[in-house]
User: Fold this.
Amino acid sequence: KNILVGQSGGPTAVINASLAGVVSAGRALGAKVYGMHYGVQGLLEGRVVDLLPILGEKELALLRRTPSSYLGSCRMKLPYPDENPAPFEKIFALLAEKNIGAVFYIGGNDSMDAVSKLSAYGESVGSAVRFIGVPKTIDNDLACTDHTPGYGSAARFVATAVSEV
Assistant:
């Protein structure tokens, strides 16, 4: 099975490091790794790219230290599947077409909400695709999470700015 990864929400200093980790792990497993351009919104538009040919070891090393969002981001909230199943049907058709076995979505609260809705829909239709939320938020406010990548860099920036004032 292949892997799909996307980024969502505000870019942080570490969001690309999480992406590099997913791509590296996928490569080590021998899976094809696809990226969503502009998160779930881009996925619904069919904007998916094979990341392995363009992200070699040199590029991944640079990506780990590059702030912002390499794949692009979005702030699209998915509807509840029972209210509007059309986006879910479209997404799951694309997942089947690309032989996706796992979807990693890097982001904050809204991104984790999308992961939860996709996972619940997948379970309701008997899909074997696994949805994994990769926490990234400078707010450090994800439920059941001790700390999140992005929070430390934001806290350090604020502390430095205050000390310089």
Remarks:
- Helices lie at 15-29, 39-44, 57-63, 86-97, 109-124, 151-164.
- The beta strands are 2-7, 33-36, 48-50, 100-107, 130-135.
- The chain is about 40% helix and 15% strand.
